[in-house]
User: What shape does this take?
Amino acid sequence: MSIEVSWFAALCDDDYEYLGVPDPKLASSFEHCRDITVAADRNGFDNILMPSGYTLGIDSVAFAGGVAPLLEQMQILVAVRMGEMWLPQLARQLATLDQMMDGRLTINIISSDIPGEKLESEPRYQRTREWMEVLRALLNGESIDFHGEFVDLELDPPRIRTVSGECPPFYFGGFSPAAKDTAAEHADVFLTWPDKVAAVGELVKEMNERAAEYGRTLKYGVRSHVIVRETEAAARAAAERLVSKLDDGKGEEIRQKSLDTASAGVGRQSELRAEAGDDWFVEENLWTGVGRARSGAGAAIVGDPDQVVAKLKAYQEQGVEAFILSGYPHIDECNLFAEYVLPKLDHGPLYN
Assistant: This one.
């Protein structure tokens, strides 16, 4: 079975040579993120995540529209935060992007707080459920008569439609009970951050059971960093170099900039670092050092090409069909992964 292998466009000011040491050349900008995206397309990746962060970097939807005409084969995975935009307008924007991409749009649903507003987990996920339901209906070309807690709409769908006439797939992640229930009911691909292989397998099993309660099935993806070199020693040396100038206070400052610093998923990434040894490895080829200066995905697959392939296949054996990968600096690691690992993988888009 093939897997979907995606890269990361670093729109959220998350590109470094030395983790925690800002470099103006690597700051989020249209030019820099465009170069990452075009490199991933030319290198043969299947998809690329365009993340969304209000205080960090540039806008995902606007950026996607700018780079869409430059991409020849790759899909795009555009992150949108539920509640942040006017829902009917968001549907039009996404349908337009899908037209620009000739049907190669996928959507990453984000449920973190809206900038300037705080909600408890339960109401925030209620808002996300309502938005996902109505957004899917509009992108399916259906009229809306919906009266919920957060969405109150009676509306015909926009004339602009996706290429297929149907809603693109929703990729969605979250680790609280409310998040998992939202995914089970409304997502197409459930995303998890890096974890021990067995733990990912347990999560897939749990989510299969939750989805079955709604009469649904899910696909699964892992969002992880990667460091691959010709030898394991060189990969470990690259990992050590990446954090060699990191000040722990600066790392904490970077982590606190994210809107999801108190989430269950971020908590699990912190637990992994606590479980790791002095070298920050928590199990074979899974290095948690990157999480010292990053909220969200806090570990990297580190090793030689065969070790990285073996780790991806170990996750695949647990039911994972998609990987969203990144490395530092993003263009350099994108090229290395494409040289050393992509040719060894049977890969292609999850959705054609």
Observations:
- The CA atoms of residues 43 and 339 lie 8 Å apart.
